[in-house]
Amino acid sequence: MKILVINAGSSSLKYQLIDMENESVIAKGICERIGIEGSNLVHKANGKETKYEQAMPDHTVAIKMVIDALTDQEVGVLSSLDEIGAIGHRVVGSGEYFTKTTLVTPEALETLKKTYEFAPIHNPANVMGIMACMEAMPGKSNVAVFDTAFHSTMPDEAKLYAIDYQDYQDYKVRRYGAHGTSHKYVSQEAIKYCDAEGKDFKIVTLHLGGGSSISAVKNGICIDTSMGFTPLAGVPMGTRSGDIDPSAAKFLAEKKGMTFDETINYLNKKCGVMGVSGVSSDFRDLQQATEAGNYRAELAVNLFAYNVKKYIGAYTVAMGGLDCLVFTAGIGENSAFTRARILKGLECLGVEFDAEKNKQRSSSIMEITGENSKVRVLVIPTNEELMIARETLALC
Ligand code: AMP
Fold first, then answer.
1. Which residues lie closer than 8 Å to 363 by C-beta, 6 or more apart?
2. 334 CB near ligand 1 (under 6 Å)
3. Does 330 contact ligand 1 (Cβ within 6 A)?
4. Domain count within the chain
5. Which of the ends of the chain has fewer CB neighbours closer than 10 A, N or C?
6. Which protein residue has the closest C-alpha to ligand 1 atom 23?
7. What average pLDDT does range 107-125 have in this prediction?
8. Residue 219 domain-assigned?
9. Confidence (pLDDT) at 392
């Protein structure tokens, strides 16, 4: 079966057509500037890139352009739309309305609209993508794959904040986590790689990128994750503060004359390793500056690594042990420098890594476990689109 995977943003729409026979990408592309002047579609298939510049006033027009590109006589890869078996959609937030991948029925669509308050920037756009596909390709199965679903198995003591329980019940304020599709994908790949299916196997997955989150995955089930009600929580990130005492935020707001919204924006956009270093949010720049002797750049990297280490320790205790550490996403997959700073000092948990293997690069799974390590250390490229396609296939 061929599955079309859609990741719709407010003004962009990414897609991949995946052949599930061999899980290969047949075509992929991105529509940009939807609803804005200068919109365009870049379509890649058969090693060729084609750019279409055409007005895209809304997501329905964007989807129609994607369909045209996929079925184009010259650059297309489908003889007809009938070849698409189902459509899988990334949906960011679920609130407590959904706990797993869901076929979008008319009732589910109405419920999806209730989730907007839990992801106000992303979910309305994700749902626009779903509705555009329903309109442009009537009769096809549309499946919603939630970033939060993998974390829905967290026990109450991990997912709840220590607020008035009634407020949790009334407003559903709790930890939801993020990057769940990535954590699920890399943990499943690690289980396969380590031949640990059905075995007692405890993994800490480290999704370290522009946004970073860490999960404790015990026997394939997520039992805790570092992001919270929103993706602002957890370890410090590129520009996000991560965990901070709310009273410190209030103190800063008063000192700097910021409103509540401005303070949240400050914590999301002006903090993290960017704020600490004053150099960059990009770990390539931070490495360069550290090697050139910049104190604040090195402090930012150390602050990041220290906080990641703390989560690894906490999750090892939460799971009652540790068998495998998995690095993924932009930093996790590419920054040997940052991985080394995280891994040094974890010997007390039985974690040792091979410094030479750590410096290598690979587009597939890379094992950097040290000779005497009790814990496997893996670098696994994430693939959220493939995970969405797998989830969609499982339901159709
Ligand atoms: P992501 O959000 O997963 O796309 O990750 C983006 C981040 O990964 C960037 O902001 C960089 O900090 C980091 N990154 C990407 N490539 C490299 C690299 N080659 N070396 C170090 N960091 C990298």
1. 381
2. yes
3. yes
4. 2
5. N
6. 331
7. 96
8. yes
9. 98
